[in-house]
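Board notes (copied after class):
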Amino acid sequence: MNINSLFRHFRESFKSLGRNAWMTFASASAVTVTLLLVGVFFVILMNMNNIAKNVENDVEIRVQIDAAAKQDDMDKLGQQLKDTNAVKTVTFSSKEEELESIVKSLGKSFALFEQDNPLRNVYVVKTKTPEDVIKVAHKIEKYDYVEKVKYGQGTVEKLFNVINVMRNIGVVLIVGLLFTAMFLISNTIKITIVARRNEIEIMRLVGASNSFIRWPFFLEGLWLGILGSIIPIILIATTYHKVIGVVTDRSDIGYLQMLPFSPFIYQVSGVLLLMGALIGVWGSMMSVRKFLKV
């Protein structure tokens, strides 16, 4: 196909959008509404996954050291912890630092224990993956000079199960929503093409090749998908920017660490734009093919 034919197809595709304004509006609206739902759900799912990941990363093992352990014993235990498989970092926290942390968290009334500190020296252990916490904790319990191991036993197992179920449900829902979006958008575009079946038949009667007929409809589907994705992109980007501002200003919900506006929202915009274009082209091609069969 030469450059003149390509420019002609571009002109014809734009003219067709104008000549069939109502059908163009209907198709673009279907793309807009469906992609808006997909985009909103995708943003929510990704942020839920990010919050779940942050919660998982906060899971740690606190190894309380036996009060009878001397400095050499604590050093040996620390090295043993570092050499344990799946351990990422090991941090020592003295009983004075532990008490100071409690005073900051729960109030100065606990400062009375400074004279006779009942706490223990602690090693804070982080694993390479959150799922390794339980296995590593059980292994550490058998080490010498370990008085007690805390990792949120019972709660951590439930937390991991809830997070895994949430992620699986989220993936299933978004895949289902994507297929629904493809069905709705492609069918709306098919109606647009079917309404112009006479135009396709006339082009075939005058000897136009299949590829010559396909190109304008291919481009129309592309433009419809792009047009329909613009409004969802603008609405989602604007709303997300405002929500991030509210969450950032609210110190009481500071634990809700949402994904930063950039580059996340640009990635979402690119996905929606590409999705709209692909579904628009696919819907057009599937419809035109029906009328090009001999």
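Comment from the instructor: Residues 3-55+159-292 form one domain. Residues 99 and 105 are 10 Å apart (CA to CA).
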